[in-house]
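TICKET: design request
STATUS: open
ATTACHED STRUCTURE:
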C-alpha cells in the first residue's frame, strides 16, 4: 500500500519508510518532530550536513528526493503544501551551496577533502530523472550533486556493491561545530529503570530495547519497542490504521529524551510493524555523525530497513528532541541495467556488420544476462518475431559482437566452467548438415571460438581459435564445455519506437 509522506511529498511504500509523528506531551522527556525547521535554527543559516551516496570514487553524489523547480501551491496540493515546500527548501539549500560542501566523514572521525563536480538532473536520454531512490548499480544514474575526492587516496578502502551513505558538511558548518566521537555498541538493552519509566509513562509493555551508540562519553542513544496498540496515538484523518509505538531514545545522565515513532498495529495477528519486511522488530537507527553546535547536540542519523534508508538530524533543544527528516529513500534491489538510446543505436550498428544480419529484421527487444558469472552483464537482442538475434559483451558500456542468430541457428547457454561461460549457436545448415558455433566468455570478452560441422551426426570439420581439431578432439571439447545447459528464462524489454 502506498501513501504520501507529508514531509518528503513523494509516494513511497508506507511500511517501507515508516512515519515519525509529532508527540502530544510537552514534558522534558518528550520528542517533537521538526519537519518545518529546515534551513535555519534561530539566526543560524549555516548550510546543514547532507548525505552522500557512495559506491566507488566514480559514483559519489547526494541524491535528490523532490523536484528541482520551486513548488507552486494549487488546489491539488494545498493540504500538503507546507511539507512539500519544506522538503524542497532543504534540497534547494544544498543546491545553492553545493560548492561549499568540502568535507566528507569517512570513518573514525576522519575528514576527507571533496570537491563539487556538477549537478545531474537528466539521464543520458535527456529525460528528467525521478528522485527519492537509491539505486543498486553504478550504471543507473540518479538526480543530485556529484562530488569527487581531492586526493584519491582518501577514498574508502573498498567499493560498496549496493552503496553506502556518508555525511558531508559545508566548510562553514565546522567553523561553529565540534565533531564528537561516536562509538557503536549495538546489541545491549536499555537500562531497566529507563524502560520501566517509559512503560509507566505510556501505559504499555516494552517488548525489547537496544542501546545503539555512545556519544562523546556523555550521551547514550538507542530505542524501545512496545507491544500492542498505541491507543493514545495522535489521530490521522487520512488513515484508519491502528498504531504501534517505538521510541528513539537519547540519554544524558539522568535526562531522558524520546521521539515517538508510530508504526502499524495489526489487531488480528497482534503484530507491530514499522518498515517493510521488518519481521515485527523496530530497526535500529545509526548515528553517522555527532556535533556540538552553538545551540547544543546535533546528530546525523540513518534509519536503515530492508527496503529503505531514512536520513535526517536529531537535535536536543529546550529539553526536547527535535527531528529534521530529510528523506525516506526507497532502496532499489535487483534492478535491470538500462539501455540508453545511444547504446541501442551502437548495438544495432554493430549487429549490421555481421554477414548474417538482416536489415529487414531490426532488433526490437533485449535482455541482460551474465554468461560468465563475473557480475558484468552481456546483452541478448532479437527482432520482434524471434527470427534473428544477436549477442554482445557490454563491459564498460563498450559493446562487442559475440554472434548472430539466424532463422535456423539459435542460441543455447551453458553453465560456467573455470570462470568461462559458454554460448552455442547451432542449427541445420542445409540437407543433412548441422552447424555448431561455440563461444567462451571470460571477463566479459570472447576468449575461445569453436566451429564444427556434422553430416548425418558425424563430425566432418572442427576448429578452435582457427586451429583444426580431429573429430575426437572436437567431441571432447564439446563434452567438457557444454554438458551442463543453462536454461535462460525468456523475458524481454521492448525497445520503444523512438529509440
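STATUS: resolved
RESOLUTION: sequence designed for all positions
ATTACHED SEQUENCE:
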Amino acid at each position: 500500500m502506498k501513501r504520501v509522506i507529508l514531509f518528503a511529498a513523494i509516494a513511497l511504500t508506507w511500511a517501507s519508510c515508516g512515519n515519525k509523528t509529532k508527540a502530544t506531551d510537552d514534558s522534558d522527556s518528550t520528542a517533537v518532530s521538526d519537519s518545518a525547521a529546515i534551513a535555519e535554527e534561530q539566526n543560524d543559516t549555516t548550510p546543514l550536513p547532507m548525505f552522500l551516496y557512495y559506491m566507488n570514487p566514480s559514483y559519489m553524489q547526494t541524491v535528490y528526493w523532490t523536484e528541482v523547480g520551486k513548488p507552486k501551491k494549487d488546489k491539488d496540493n494545498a493540504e500538503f503544501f507546507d511539507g512539500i515546500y519544506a522538503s524542497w527548501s532543504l534540497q534547494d539549500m544544498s543546491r545553492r551551496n553545493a560548492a561549499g560542501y568540502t568535507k566528507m566523514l569517512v570513518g573514525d572521525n576522519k575528514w576527507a577533502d571533496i570537491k563539487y563536480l556538477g549537478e545531474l538532473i537528466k539521464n543520458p536520454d535527456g529525460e528528467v530523472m525521478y528522485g527519492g531512490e537509491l539505486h543498486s548499480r553504478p550504471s543507473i544514474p540518479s538526480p543530485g550533486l556529484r562530488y569527487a575526492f581531492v586526493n584519491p587516496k582518501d577514498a574508502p578502502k573498498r567499493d560498496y556493491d549496493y552503496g553506502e551513505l556518508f555525511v558531508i558538511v559545508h566548510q562553514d558548518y565546522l567553523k561553529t561545530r565540534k565533531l564528537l566521537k561516536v562509538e557503536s555498541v549495538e546489541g545491549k538493552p536499555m537500562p531497566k529503570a529507563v524502560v520501566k519509566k517509559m512503560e509507566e509513562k505510556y501505559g504499555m509493555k516494552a517488548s525489547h530495547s537496544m542501546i545503539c551508540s555512545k556519544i562523546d562519553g556523555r550521551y547514550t542513544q538507542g530505542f524501545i519497542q512496545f507491544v500492542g496498540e498505541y491507543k493514545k496515538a495522535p489521530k490521522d484523518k487520512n488513515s484508519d490504521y491502528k498504531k504501534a509505538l517505538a521510541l528513539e531514545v537519547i540519554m544524558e545522565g539522568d535526562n531522558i529524551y524520546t521521539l515517538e515513532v508510530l508504526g502499524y498495529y495489526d489487531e488480528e495477528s497482534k503484530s507491530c510493524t514499522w518498515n517493510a519486511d521488518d519481521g515485527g522488530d523496530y530497526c535500529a537507527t545509526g548515528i553517522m555523525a555527532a556535533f556540538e553546535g552553538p545551540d547544543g547536540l546535533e546528530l546525523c542519523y540513518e534509519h536503515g530497513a530492508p527496503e529503505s534508508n531514512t536520513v535526517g538530524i536529531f537535535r536536543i533543544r529546550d529539553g526536547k528532541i527535535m527531528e529534521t527528516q530529510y528523506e525516506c529513500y526507497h532502496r532499489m534491489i535487483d534492478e535491470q541495467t538500462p539501455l540508453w538510446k545511444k547504446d541501442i543505436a551502437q548495438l544495432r550498428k554493430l549487429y549490421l556488420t555481421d554477414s548474417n544480419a538482416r536489415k529487414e529484421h531490426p532488433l526490437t527487444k533485449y535482455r541482460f544476462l551474465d554468461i560468465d558469472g563475473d557480475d558484468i552483464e552481456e546483452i541478448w537482442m532479437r527482432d520482434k518475431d524471434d527470427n534473428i538475434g544477436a549477442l554482445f559483451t557490454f563491459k564498460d558500456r563498450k559493446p562487442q559482437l559475440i554472434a548472430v542468430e539466424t532463422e535456423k541457428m539459435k542460441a543455447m547457454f551453458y553453465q560456467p566452467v573455470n570462470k568461462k561461460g559458454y554460448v552455442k549457436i547451432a542449427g541445420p545448415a542445409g540437407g543433412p548438415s548441422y552447424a555448431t558455433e561455440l563461444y567462451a566468455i571470460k571477463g566479459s570478452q570472447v576468449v575461445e571460438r569453436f566451429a564444427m560441422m556434422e553430416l548425418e551426426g558425424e563430425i566432418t570439420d572442427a576448429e578452435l581459435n582457427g586451429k583444426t581439431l580431429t573429430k575426437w578432439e572436437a567431441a571432447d571439447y564439446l563434452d567438457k564445455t557444454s554438458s551442463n545447459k543453462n536454461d535462460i528464462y525468456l523475458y524481454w524489454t521492448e525497445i520503444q519506437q523512438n529509440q
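CLOSING REMARK: The mean pLDDT is 88. The chain is about 10% helix and 45% strand.
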